[in-house]
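Input chain follows. Return structure tokens only.
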Amino acid sequence: MGALSFANPAYLWGALAVALPLAIHLFSRRRPRPLPFGAIELVLRSQKQKRRNLRLRQLLLLALRCLLIAALALALARPSLVPRTESAQAASGPHATALVLDASLSMRYRMGGKTLFEKSRAEALAALERLTPEEPATAGLCAGPAGFGEGGLAAPSFDRAAVRRILTTAQPSEVASDMTACLDAAAHTLGESMVSGKRIFAFTDMSAHAFRLDAPPPLTPAPPSASGQAAPIRPEIVLVDAAEGAELPNVAILSVSAAAAPRLGPRGYEVAATIGNFSAHPLANVEVELRVDGHALAKGFVDLPAHETGKKLLGAVLPAGLAAGEVVLAHADGPGLDEDDARAFAIQVPRDLKALIIDGAPASLRERDEAWFVEAALNPARTAGRITAQTLDQDAAENHPLDGVDVVLLLNPQVPSKPLSERLRAFVQKGGGLFIALGDHTDPDALNESLASLLPRPLHLLKTARDPDASDGQGGLPPPARFASIDWQHPIFRVFGPTEREALESVHVNRYALLAADGKQSVRILASFDDGAPALIESQLGAGRVLLFTSSASASWNDWPLHPSFLPVVQQAVSHLAGALEERVSTASQVGDQRVISAARGSRIVQVLGPDNRPLALSRELSTNSAKEAANGFATSSKTAPGKVGSDSGAETQGQRDAFVVAVALPGVYRVQTAPMGASTNSAGEARDDPSLAFAAGLDAKESDLRRVDEAELKALLGGASSAQVASSSLSAQGNGGTALWPALLLLCVLALLGEGALTRR
């Protein structure tokens, strides 16, 4: 047996309109007219027969009209036949209800022409409409590690319009969700309602990665009783499965990495893509495509076993500058998650450079010539045409224009003239690079006066480590100086592996300059001699860099040019000074994270553009330490509007870097625009893209794996089958569902109306 329930019982008052047909029937009764002539037996019989027929038709009309009105009133009341178990649930009273909508990336999965999120949103709206007026409700989107976000979940209320608005405007996110945390938060929120019944509807795809089976079950805190704190309440939990129990196969690109491939050319790179097959069937010849700036550069195919991953290498010669690309899966349309079919990457490809070598001491013997070894290191045959060098003596360089030059190498200079010093200073401040090496013409006092603003530290005096006229007291010579402390993490020396480092440390230096300590904090010592004296020191001036080698670039003061380590250091130094060398590996971020961006010394961040080319909101950070510390993140202190960097209060001081925190909300490549620190804040023309700060953001790889959670373990987590259930729809789980009777009543109304029309026409 079942019970009869009504969704709209107020409409039952309409059944009182049955009195109208009764009144019409009583007023329309016809009485036979008496005949003025004599009785004739045949006429009397005919009259009696017509009276009986008319009465029968009137009774039928009465019945049909009453049936029409009564059936219409019942249909508007929407009756349904409720099973006995659901009737018992309805008798237990109203419930405070929380509607939890999974808004994670995996809910974007397409199945049957719709995404799982669209199906779940429709189910949540239908569940809201089926709640009785006595049941308060709340709704929230579960996405990200914060569960329902910073605002949390609102307390249950009777404002159905507000709850409906939340569900109607809901959109899926691009991050993962923690359904366990969301269910726990929903259970706590239900404790704010005075309604005794507690119920949670969770609309999800049942992905295993969204649930933590080792967590305690969600409990609703009970209001305090007269005797003290009451025990927590275990709410009823209904998990509405958007996939309706079906498996969700998917193919996704899980990660992308890039590395230089010299065998492909001077700008050759190999991009390695890891691809996952999250299905029970192996896949053959899955097409993978490498795209850069929207152009396809390489294609390949990969075979993927069931529930396994595979790797594919795609090589290409990339354009100079920032190469913003992506690896894309080109598979047939069908069910799946489209968003993880592509993953972006960002590579800073070194650009072509132009170097100007100023030879302060030309010599006929090449081993004595200051520029000969440097020219050999920068020969286009050795740099694959990426670096072009021009050599001038110091007199010819006095009036030589520096337009188009990226790096100036000042070797064994005589005292430069004031105009040349000023031009070199302006050149460096605008972003150029300057390399200075000493030699026999070095006059410390004169160079300090002429190049005071360019030298990282003033020159003190020249030191001879090994003098042929000296003796060590045993008839031999004192040992030469060697490199004893080298910053192997600096981009110049990063190319040296463990086996190559010994060759650099075996260099002999006979003469070098000692430097005065002037208290500058913006210098960086890259290498020192075994007595602690700086050998290679770097400083920042404006947007450019200066690198000072305290010995000579020829074989006059040392034998370094005769060692194989000299060539890569010179090439790396020129690329580094020109800003065409990565200072650090740009690691990819994950959507949903925050990233700290630190500009180079002498530069300020103007704006950060997201993958949609819109400026992001920036949170001010100011680091007084290295870029490595900035990459670890800082506590934010203030926020500015999108695309704005605030006032000059964050201007760089000596040793500080301009740093900001940005929220990574979309997958793709993020570009950073910088300007010299001294440039006007309102001068947009000074801003330019800094390829070294660009980065790519990818999706959470675990969202691509849509394997279902074990329902038995999940029910055990949620308190057992008595308080948790998994349903294919909210209709089958709600107590006022049952078998709807109003469609049959509407059909009965139509039949009664047709019958009444047929009788009235006769």
